[in-house]
Amino acid sequence: MEEAHRREQPLVSIITPSLNQGGFIEETILSVRNQTYPNIEHIICDAGSTDGTPDVIRKHEGTYNLRWVSEPDNGQADAINKGFDMAQGEIVTWLNSDDIYLTTEAVSRVVSIFRAYPTADVVTGDGVQIDDDGRWVRPFGRWKTNRVCYKHLRYANPLVQPSTFFRRHVLQECRCDTTFYYAFDWDLFIRIARRYNLLPIHDMLSGFRIHRRAKTAAIGTAYVGEQREIIRRYLGPRSPQHLMFVCYHVLFKASDLLPRPLRIALQWTVERFSVAISTLTFGRICAV
What is the predicted pLDDT for the residue at 1? Predict the structure, then answer.
C-alpha cells in the first residue's frame, strides 16, 4: 500500500553538485533523506573530491533513493547540467552540498503548490542565510514583492536558488550556461522567466550557507565581471545599469593591486553600494 501511494506522487529529483564539501554534505544529505515527501530521488554529482566526501556519501547508500557519480567536470554549472540529464522526476531542483532544507515538509509543500497551480512552471520560496554551524544569520526574501517575471529579473536576482523548483520540461529546454562560474543561476532564471511562469511563495524552505570556503563568501572581480556580462546581455551595453557595473568592475580590478585589508574593505564598500542601488532600482521597477 505504501509503495502504491509513493508511486502516485510525482517524482522529485534533487541534484547536489559537490566538490570537497565533506564538512557539510552530510547535513545536506540528511535534510533530503529526512523529507516526509515519499517520492524523491537524490542525485549527487561529485567532481572527484579528495577530502572524504565520497566516504560520507557511501555511508548513506541504500538508506534512501540516492544515486551518485564521481568524475571530473567543468565546474558547478556543468555538474548541475549532468544532474539534469540524469534526473527522472517531474519536478527538479538543485541543492548545493553546503545548503539544507529547513524543514522536513519543504518538498511536500512545493509539490502541493505545483498541484494547486498546474500552469506554474517554477515555484520559488524564501530562505535564510546560515553560517558554518547552521545558525541563522539573516533571511533571504524577494525584495518584499511578488514580481519575479522576466522584466524584473534582468535588474537583480531576488530568487533564493535552493528554494526554487522547476517542472522537468523547463530544464530540458533551459540549461545552465557553463561559461559562467558564479552567476549562472541568475542567467538561468532570466532565460526561464522569459518563457515560463514563475510562482513565488512565502514559505521558508532552505538554508543557504555562507562560509569561508564558499564561492559566494566574498565578492570578487570575476563575480562582478559576470554580473556585468549578464546585465549587458539582457539590458544592453548602453543601459545605466551596465555602465554602473562597468565602473564597479574597474574599481574591483584596481582594488586587486591593494594590500588585502584595503582590497577587502574597498570591495565590500562597492558591493554594499551596488546592493543599495540594485534595491532602489528593482523597487522602482516593481512599482510600475
Answer: 44
**Is 135 in a helix, a strand, or coil?**
coil
SS3 track for 208-260:
EECCCCCHHHCCCHHHHHHHHHHHHHHHCCCCHHHHHHHHHHHHHHHHCCCCH
Q: Which domain holds residue 198?
A: 2-215
The most distant pair of C-alpha atoms in the chain lies apart, rounded to whole Å, by 66
For residue range 127-144, what is the model confidence (pLDDT) as tens digits?
999 988 888 888 876 545
Judge contact between 159 and 234, C-beta under 8 A.
no
- Angstrom CA distances, 109 to 10, 24, 105, 258, stand at 13, 25, 6, 48
For strand 91-94 and strand 100-101, is the pairing parallel, antiparallel, or unpaired? unpaired
**3-class DSSP state of 109:** helix
Domain's final residue, options 184, 215, 246? 215
The structure's pTM equals 0.88
What values do phi and psi take at 248, rounded to 5? -60, -45
